[in-house]
Write a structure and sequence with these properties.
CATH superfamily of the largest domain: Ferritin, core subunit, four-helix bundle
Shape: globular
Strand order of the largest sheet: 1-2
Distance between the termini: 35 Å
Order of helices and strands: HHEHHHHEHH
Number of domains: 2
Number of strands: 2
CATH class of the largest domain: Mainly Alpha
């Protein structure tokens, strides 16, 4: 039997990050499962927990077989399953849908940096689990009327090439900018939806965070999400398009935290970085110059917010150091 090559630096790094993310999700699920709104949401949550718990065991065995220390990640110390309900009216499934969006993106990137067959299979299997869970979340939220679909547009009767550089222009004192196209509308809607969930989540976290600096940081996140929502809404309204972003559920008035401040900061860190990545994607596939400039300015604000949060986590001793490169030279 051919001996497996040692894990590459890329594979070790992505598996380390996957272990962190999966233990975070398990702690999140351990709290929201007992507080599920109904039997359908309970089924979604418990099935995902069962799948991911097996993969923590598989990742643990892989680290041990390679002689690598296990990441610190997140444990039972980071969750209080007896805390009062913090999310209601479908907010838990709405948040889980955002988590699954992040996971799908991460698995694609991680698989692209993997070469060993067993590591590729891990990301392939996790992708399948995540896609199924994401589909279940979508169907549940639509059935409950919690999630609204993006705006509809007339179906095109033909396609043509851009033949005028004015198509790129968003700044023109003499005439109104062209109407946004379907790609731009899709990106704007997604940005608004993500920030709407993020704003509600930060509101919930700001209620229960123990440290005053952490509370203030979550409040800054709320204001940043409002800024993103306002800017994107204005682009739609200029073209007489009604925003269709939903109310997405709500947080209760509980002040008892179900999670450690460290876990909530990690979640915020992941969500903000996902937002930054989505913003970059939106910038890349947007052609109108005024929208591109707005996306770039918002990305700068989000990057600054992430940097502030990273420093706050390091200050509190919460930012786990990634695997280090230790090379000796003769």
């Amino acid at each position: 039997m051919t001996e497996k090559p040692a894990l590459s630096a890329s594979e070790l790094a992505t598996l380390w990050m996957t272990f962190q993310e999966k233990t975070f999700i398990l702690r999140f699920l351990e709290y929201i499962i007992p507080n599920a709104d109904d039997e359908k949401s309970l089924k979604i949550l418990t099935e995902l927990y069962g799948h991911l718990d097996k993969y923590i065991e598989k990742l643990t065995n892989l680290f041990e077989s390679e002689g690598a220390a296990l990441p610190i990640a997140f444990s039972s110390k980071d969750v209080n399953v007896n805390a009062p309900k913090l999310f209601e009216n479908g907010l838990d499934i709405m948040i889980l849908r955002e988590i699954k969006q992040m996971s799908m993106g991460l698995y694609t990137l991680n698989m692209g940096m993997s070469f060993r067959e067993d590591v590729i299979d891990i990301y392939k299997d996790l992708t399948s689990i995540t896609q199924e869970c994401y589909k279940d979340c979508i169907q549940y939220l639509l059935e409950k009327g919690i999630l609204t679909r993006p705006p509809h547009i007339p179906m095109p009767s033909n396609y043509e090439f851009v033949n005028d550089l004015n198509y790129l222009s968003g700044y023109n004192l003499l005439k109104k900018a062209r109407q946004i196209d379907a790609l731009e509308l899709a990106n704007i809607h997604h940005n608004m939806e993500t920030n709407n969930v993020g704003m509600t989540l930060m509101f919930a976290f700001s209620q229960v965070a123990k440290d005053s600096d952490i509370k203030n940081y979550f409040h800054k996140g709320i204001e940043l999400s409002r800024k993103v929502l306002k800017a994107n809404t204005e682009f739609l309204l200029e073209d007489n398009i009604s925003p269709t972003v939903t109310s997405i559920g709500n947080a209760t008035n509980s002040k008892d935290s179900p999670f450690s401040d460290r876990l909530m900061m990690y979640f915020n860190y992941m969500l903000a970085n996902f937002t930054l990545g989505a913003n970059s994607f939106s910038f890349a596939f947007t052609l109108r110059s005024d929208i591109k400039v707005e996306f770039a300015l918002l990305a700068k604000d989000v990057a600054g917010y992430i940097d502030e949060g990273t420093k706050l986590m390091i200050k509190n001793g919460w930012f786990e150091k990634p695997p280090q490169i230790s090379l000796s030279y003769s």
